[in-house]
Design a protein that fits this description.
Length: 187
């Protein structure tokens, strides 16, 4: 996107030389350059709404398209996670499709294993510690994708006491953290 200074310079380059010293001409150019810069910014803002990763006020339209009702108070990024999961959940059901959808919510790697004999699908979150923030939305999205006869088990990784004591961290170092912070490895 062009800056206001670039727009002013380009507009001035189109004028004859004798207008460069005119206060009236420079005042008109400055006023028009401000309007053109604002128009330019508005155009880029509209274009951003066509992409889930950059959309803000256009997320409501994306949610309407995918039939999603956002949670009250959800941030833009949380709403985008749900939409990315919905978008990735289209196609033939496979382990890679399920991994792709789950990774959209987990912000990390997941492993999916299928036990056909027990009609069970196990999703293990290996890239992050703790429970993903959008777990309920992930569960709802996977329930829409995965056949109803399959049970889904979720396995999470947590920071254990053995890992904590082995890392050399002292109790004094942990004074500003909650149990949840330590357990989910938000140190």
């Amino acid at each position: 996107m062009r800056t206001l200074t670039e727009i002013q310079r380009d507009m001035l380059d189109y004028l004859p030389q004798y207008y460069r010293d005119s206060l009236v001409a420079s005042g008109i150019l400055n006023a028009e350059a401000i309007e053109i810069a604002q128009l330019n910014a508005d155009i880029y803002d509209v274009l951003d709404q066509f992409y889930i990763d950059r959309a803000t006020w256009g997320l409501a339209r994306w949610e309407r398209i995918f039939g999603v009702t956002p949670e009250a108070g959800a941030t833009y990024e949380q709403r985008r996670e749900v939409l990315r999961g919905k978008m990735r959940g289209v196609g033939k059901i496979s382990v890679s499709l399920i991994e792709n959808v789950a990774e959209a919510y987990a912000n990390g790697d997941v492993d999916v294993t299928v036990d056909s004999a027990a009609y069970t699908l196990t999703i293990t979150f290996v890239g992050v510690f703790g429970v993903p923030a959008q777990l309920d939305a992930l569960k709802a999205n996977l329930r829409d994708i995965i056949p109803a006869h399959m049970a889904i088990d979720y396995v999470f990784r947590f920071y254990t006491y053995g890992e904590l004591t082995g890392s050399g961290v002292t109790y004094a170092d942990l004074s500003g953290y909650t149990y949840d912070d330590i357990y989910n490895r938000r140190l």
